[in-house]
Structure formats: C-alpha cells, structure tokens
Amino acid sequence: DDVPVLTIDGPSGSGKGTISRAVAHRLGWHYLDSGALYRAVGVAAAWADLDLDDPGALVRCAFDTEIDFRETPDGDLRVLVNGHDATDELRTETAGAAASAIAAIPAVRTALRDRQRAFRRLPGLVADGRDMGTVIFPDAAWKVFLTASAEERAERRYNQLKNKGVSVTLAGLLREILARDARDASRAVAPLRPAPEAVCIDTTGLGIDEVVDSVLALLPGRG
Ligand code: C5P
Description:
Elements: E1 5-9, H1 16-27, E2 30-33, H2 34-47, H3 55-64, E3 67-71, E4 77-81, E5 84-85, H4 87-90, H5 93-102, H6 106-117, E6 125-129, H7 132-136, E7 142-147, H8 150-163, H9 170-186, E8 199-202, H10 208-216
Parallel strand pairs: 1-6, 1-7, 2-6, 7-8
Antiparallel strand pairs: 3-4, 4-5
Bound molecules: cytidine-5'-monophosphate.
C-alpha cells in the first residue's frame, strides 16, 4: 500500500487524541479515531440493551452498527451512530468502560479491522489507538507510542470533565484509568504495547505544541 500512515498508540489520557488530530491537521492527512469505533459499538450495544456478557450479540452489533464521522463547517468532528449524533455520549466514562470490555472480544476486533483499514486514503493517514502500529497498520512508515504518568493522565481527564461541568473526583478517575490500563494491557488479543520499532514519547509535563513538534520531527519535510 503506498498511502503513508503514521500510527499513534498509547493509553487513555496520554494525549493521543489531541496530538493525533493536531498532527493530521498540520500534515493535511486523514485522521482515524479507532477508539471511537469501539465506543460506538459500546453505545449501540447499550441502546439495544445488549448484555456485555453475550459475545455473540456484541459481535453482531459490531458488524451491524453504522458509524459515520462528519466534520462540521467549524472543524468539529461529530460521530453518528446508526444515524444519531452520539459524539457527547461517546466521550463518557460509561462508554469508555463498555468499549474496553467489548474490545477484549477477538471477533469484535476482527469485525472492526477492515473498517479501520478503509481510512487509509491519500494523501495519508494518522491512526490513533492501541494497536494501530502492532495489528491494524503493521507496515506504517512511522510509529509513535505516547505515555504519561497515570497521575497526569487522571488530572488531564479531570480538567476536561470539569470544563464540561461533569462532577467527578480525581481519585475516582485515577482508579478508573489504572483499571482500564490493566485491562487493555493484559487482554489476550491486541494488548496495549508499543510496536518494537515505535518511538516512545513521554508527555508528562510537556505541552501540546512540544509533543506535536516532536512527532512532526519524525517526518522531516512533511509537517
Ligand atoms: O482511545 P479511547 O479511550 O477512545 O478507547 C476506548 C477503549 O477502546 C480503550 O480503553 C480500549 O479498550 C479500546 N480500544 C482498543 N483498540 C483501539 C482503540 C481503542 O482496544 N485501537
């Protein structure tokens, strides 16, 4: 495949989403938010009242759920799930926890694999997730793994939610982040780990622009 791909993997709260979107924007490339696909299936499963312990139903749901990304005129990315704008619901901790549970089902990951690969279109793709460099785009020319301390990730999420007026505690968020990390890293299929050739960037204490610049520095002449 001659469409260039940059993969950006890492745990929740590592800044992947913000950094990936900014880098895609600077490059003029497409952007894949793979977590949104897992979250969309989680939300569709909740709407259909599916049991999170029924893998067969969840796999059907992964195949059947329509997921569309739309950019609004002011550059906002909206996600439509079965035709409904579910952007805000997708960002909730409930949707994240459901996504993480269904993401551990191998057939769900297979169901979403080709949909993710379909985002690979000219002039290029920035793919954001957990297994972009290891499983979905193993031939990507550039692979980045972003990390940050769990405390800093909890604090970033806390500030995000507080700005939205959601009431949460820092300790509660830290607990959820540690639980989700453990589940994502220990599952049998596509566990969260850096590709051997990935460049690891620890974003603890770094600002968004500094991280974006270090990522773009990996693609000389393109940023
Ligand atoms: O990145 P985000 O927090 O939106 O992802 C939600 C959940 O979806 C993650 O906790 C992870 O379990 C799952 N996921 C995944 N593989 C990806 C992206 C997300 O397993 N490529």
